User: What shape does this take?
Amino acid sequence: MKILKNFLFFIFLGSSNFAILQNTESVELLLEKINLLKKEIESLTASIETNNLTISRLEEANQIRYIDLDKRIHLLETKLLFEEAQNEESSDQSINPLSGLIEEDIDSGEFGLWSNSIKLLDNSRYSEAAENLRLLILSYPNGTYVGDAYFWLGEIYLVQEMFEDSSEILNAFVSKFDDHPRKVDGLYKLALAKINLEELDSAEILLQEVISNYPNSGAALLAEQDLIKLNSQ
Assistant: This one.
């Protein structure tokens, strides 16, 4: 009887050790699975961060392309105007040989400042261009090119990361020149200045205005991207 009891005791002890061994293996397997899941989560997190960085860089590239394209279009328009003015001047001189001796009027002086500003912009001489544009605004407050001068001065300040100055000039531009063909661009770039100044509520209102009032513009597409970015912060 005693032998039987000892036998049963050893069987129970063996089965208990086996159960403990099984439990230990289950815990180790569970820990291994947890570690694998952690690695997968870390990998996914890194992938998401990489994707977000890629998207951010694409958005920045789109903005740069948009600004560059806008600049090129404007420079081309100005070049055509300049060539047209030169042709008219040549025509006047052929009709009246003394026309070259007559003092230039105010409009031609304004155009000279404007065309020189554009040449400086085209060569990325932003500080000199800004000086010319400020002089144009002061000298010809009601001139033909004063709206464009405000717009490009605000653009220069934006490029130079002088965001307060850019905001002030672009705000004056969109307020004073409601019918200007570049008002949508002025609104969008004013929003960019506000974002950099961390005036996010004002920026959001401006972006919404661009999207609502100019839905088919390139600025509206960029404004939608920036608005999504703002709302996700």
